[in-house]
Amino acid sequence: MTRAFAVALGLLLSMGGARAVLPDEQLHDPKLEARARHISEELRCVVCQNQTIDDSDAPLAHDLRVLVRERLTKGDSDDEVETYIVKRYGTFVLLKPPLQSDTLALWLGPLGVLLLAGLGAGFYLKGRAAAAAREPAALGPEEERALSRALEQQ
Q: How far is it, in rounded angstroms, from Cα 69 to Cα 34?
């Protein structure tokens, strides 16, 4: 049983990532296809958001793959293709958007959340330490009598 599991796990780990690029989308010229793949690695599927357009099965990703290949066959450079796509879909389509005023929150947001979480944790721990350091309040006269009676009864 464990050997079969090890073999299955080994086969699973040795499999490469599935690509959504369909054979009819691929260009006949291997150099153009390699350029298209390189450009596609930098473009995000705006439907799936965490996948490149080559990895996504979404219809919009298919349209983007076809658009990239059309632009390349028309003679556009890699930068021209990327610029064309960004003009149509915005910087969100880039997996690594540039640091600009409109993407500042995207770049600094995680740092801000981390800082806020650290401050919150610090205040929480400081409050716990202060509460533990405080002396417990002394019993009042009525509480002392009630405690004495309870102890006597036992």
A: 10
* Nearest-angstrom CA–CA distance, 91 and 44: 10
Cβ pair 94, 43 in contact under 8 A: yes
DSSP annotation of 17: P
> For the whole prediction, is pTM greater than 0.70?
no
Longest dimension (CA), the chain: 99
pLDDT for res 18? 46
DSSP type of residue 138: P
State the fold for domain 14-97.
Answer: Helicase, Ruva Protein; domain 3 (1.10.8)
DSSP label at residue 117: H
